Amino acid sequence: MTNVMLDPKVPAAHRSAVLDDAHVGDIKGALGTIRLDDDAPRQGLSVRLKTLLAIIGPGLIVMVGDNDAGAFSTYGQAGQNYGTQLLWTLLMLIPVLYVNQEMVLRLGAVTGVGHARLILERFGRFWGAFSVIDLFLLNALTLVTEFIGVTLAAGYLGLPKAAAVVLAAAIIIASAFTGSFQRFERVAITLCIGSLLLVPIYFMVHPKSSQMAHDFVVPHMPGGSGQLAAVMMVIISIVGTTVAPWQLFFQQSYVIDKRITPRFMRYEKVDLWIGIVVVIVGAAAMIGITAAAFAGTDGFGQFSDAAALAKGIEDKAGRLAGVLFAVALLDASIIGAFAVSLSTAYAIGDVFGIKHSLHRGVKGAKGFYAVYAGLVVAAAAITLLSTSYTQGLMTQFVQVLAGVLLPSATVFLLLLCNDRAVLGPWVNGPRTNAFTATVVGVLVMLSLILTAAVVWPDISSDAILTIMAGCGVTGVIVAGYFFVAGRKGTKEDPLPASGRGRPHDRTGRENWRMPPLETLAKPAMSTARKLGMGALRAYLLIAMVMVIIKVVQTALNH
How far is CA 14 from the centre of its chain? Predict the structure, then answer.
């Protein structure tokens, strides 16, 4: 297939960087199709609705896929151990979810190149390797937790665990091996609809809505200083499972594979908001359900795993409620495995330059499908060989690790979205830069408090406030830097802008796409930026070690 976007005979100014010609063509969504030559204006409610239905998929799937087996465990632990007192974390994460995913949405639609490839090309192998290695390590562990969710659901339902894992793996592989993007997306969206099983469970358990509403908007830290490390582990787990690094890589590559271009950006943002609403409602429901199920029982504060959550829900609201919860867990585990496996396969395709598209059959992208299937099989095998206790520790460890590594992923994302050669008129504005820099500061603050709580288990509230104040001041300074640099630029290491002191030129955005990567000038890396990124990486490595120590301490105490 030859296309003006790929044909080397066409001047570079009229081509884009799309790496796989299967990524160019009709948009074939689960709920509709938009032909490549359909350039008519989207006027009228009926036409706009049909367009939205065709576009829906990337935002919904990446968000619902985030409410996976690890999320059931994390939100369930928050509810069982602390009631609804940590619900406020979900409200705080809504803008973070939107800003992060909107940035990767822009990168995918405008560049036609996956997140891993962009990082390697724009920052070089040394810096890019950190981000890609983080992704592969975290995705491999996350995929194992999805199959752990399958075993827990099967155990509660009285099904053979080994058979359930094998069957789930077969479904996950078969759904992608059809060679049809549209068929895969239909399966994925069907599973997304399955996540709505949490709604009837909520009404069967009857959490206190007024208390939930209060705790959703009023921040509160449960427990005393002696419980600080445990509470911080849960909070960082919530951050890691709600805004996971794999989402960035998945959303960008999936938008590209669906062939969505800047012209449909507004519709994809609606798709993203639909997904955010679903994921936040589902997360709040899980916390509320488990809080109500264990309130006033011997199980309160004694979280073990998701199967025990189902048993507690059964004791509270009957067998049907427990069964529905287990089925919802099974559904979430499968869709999570879909998304995480695809995220990794897409990234490997980007890094090694192999064809990587669900539009291709197995013969047309053997490496891509081999990676996808290999990951699923390996994760299923590891799950079957592990013990129930190690599975529980791994599930929590993965969510905390995701939260700890998120600042690094967000920094790379922020830098890419300020690279004018990459995004042209789609680069970030100063407000987005300031907000994202503040988010990075808050994430680092959380991991810093966790680290301090592990090293000094009896750390005082005054010391925590001092840490928060220090991180707050640093965050304001960094946010101010991005705000000023985004408007004025610097001679040594400019944040690309359309003009010094002038707003970004946004004209012609709908038709602008990134030229081929080989035609772009390499961005300059200042000494200050290298030192900053190096310091962040070194600190995050220390934080990872602290997380491992905390997990080992938990195991030894058990």
Answer: 33
